[in-house]
């Protein structure tokens, strides 16, 4: 039984040019290799997001649920971000 499956994909011209460029420069041996590497990067990103969600986000949610007094309102957060932005804008 084959461990691969042949697919046909349609890419926007700019992406197709990028794939061709990667092969032409020798960075990859084939177009399939470029696509496989891109999918591996996507899988790694998805795994990292899932790890972040299940670890940090879920833990923070649980802490807020256990002690709602620790939470900040959206208005508080917006004001804090605006102050930080103003401070950082002055530095440049």
Describe this structure in words.
With 92 residues, the chain is mainly alpha-helical. It contains 3 helices and no strands. The protein has helices at residues 13-24, 31-66, 74-91. The longest helix is centred in the middle third of the chain and has 36 residues, at 31-66. The radius of gyration is 23 Å and the shape is elongated. 1% of the residues are buried. The model has no long low-confidence stretch (mean pLDDT 94).
E-strand count: 0
The helix tally amounts to: 3
End-to-end C-alpha gap: 61 Å
Which class do the helix and strand fractions yield? Answer: mainly alpha
Compute the average pLDDT: 94
What is the subunit arrangement here?
Answer: single chain
List low-pLDDT spans: none
Helix content: over 70%
Give the H and E element order.
HHH
Q: Note the main sheet.
A: none
Which word captures the global form?
A: elongated
Radius of gyration: 23 Å
Strand percent estimate = under 5%
